[in-house]
Amino acid sequence: MRATVLVDNLAARGLEGEWGLSFYLEYQGEVILLDAGASDLFVRNAHALGLDLNQVSFGVLSHAHWDHADGMDAFFARNAHAPFYLRQACGETCYDRTADGGWRYEGIRKGLLADFAPRIRYVTGTVSPLPGVTLLPHTTPGLDQRGLAAGMYRWEGHTWVPDDFAHEQSLVFSTPQGLVIFNSCCHAGADNVVREVQAAFPGQPIHAIVGGFHLYETPAQEVRAFARRLGETGVTQVVTGHCTGQAAYEILKEELGSRVQQLSTGLVLDF
Questions:
Q1: DSSP H or E run through 251
Q2: CA nearest neighbour of 177 among 204, 210, 212
Q3: How far apart are CA 143 and CA 92, in angstroms?
Q4: Do 209 and 239 touch, CB atoms closer than 8 A?
Q5: pLDDT tens digits, 2-48
Q6: Is the separation of the CB atoms in 185 and 211 below 8 Å?
Q7: What are φ and ψ of residue 50, in 5° steps?
Q8: Which of 176, 235, 188 is nearest to 214 (CA)?
Q9: Rg of the chain taking only CA atoms, in angstroms
């Protein structure tokens, strides 16, 4: 399979970056769009790279945050047929608690899901939209405590609840080298994500995990402990960027060495 990064915070090859993430994934003759960044920038970068968004068979939204979802309308305007797969728990409900005790909206742009309802496919459980491709929910218990610690909440049923990231999913590919995991922000923890995939596919090697690790505000000692836990999973390749943060990336490199590679707009990965 081939993965081309259409949007990341960093940019290479004369392309543009933004705080967001989008991948153009080619697998077994099909094309999948994972996330659509924060704007229509991924469209412009795809054009610059000679990639045709009309070839996309279906899209996947990794989770219900604006920096992965707000370009979806730009995709729908250029592709008239591909559905987008979202977790059933996806809604316009995600907020961060601010330092002054207020609330900052971090979710999908209001109205987008209703405007494009015919193109949205809500899923629960483990789903295989294509042979060799799996959408996997989180199964790690107690993830609401991670949301609470990070000040991340959802507005559900007229009340605030710590985010348990039920709206987040992993996109897993079977390749000759082993399983390749895409999880754009890994709010559950990338080490937990790998363990979830190992539990879902017992005995199958995990070749790579690709995505942001949401470490950009994490103290160095916690990042180092995380890096060691991730290394203990046995994953062969780690490709990360977006919300990982440069300081955390440098620690990952120190701990995991050549296994770690930096995401950037325009990067092409072959698995």
A1: helix 246-256
A2: 204
A3: 20
A4: yes
A5: 999 999 999 987 899 999 999 999 999 999 999 999 999 999 999 99
A6: yes
A7: 75, 30
A8: 188
A9: 17
User: CA-to-CA distance for 134 and 127, rounded, in angstroms?
Assistant: 6
How many CB atoms sit inside 10 A of residue 142's CB? Answer: 8
* Per-residue CA distances from 106 to 93, 152, 198, 215, 223 (Å): 8, 9, 30, 17, 24
Residue 177: left if φ>0, alpha if ψ -120 to 50, beta else—which one? Answer: alpha
**In terms of residues, how long is the chain?**
271
Task: Note if the pTM is more than 0.85.
Answer: yes
> Do the beta carbons of residue 78 and residue 43 sit within 8 Å?
yes
| Residue indicated by tokens 């490709």 | 239
Secondary structure (3-state) at 123: strand
Average the pLDDT over 246-263 and give the result.
Answer: 97
Which of helix, strand or coil describes residue 259? Answer: helix
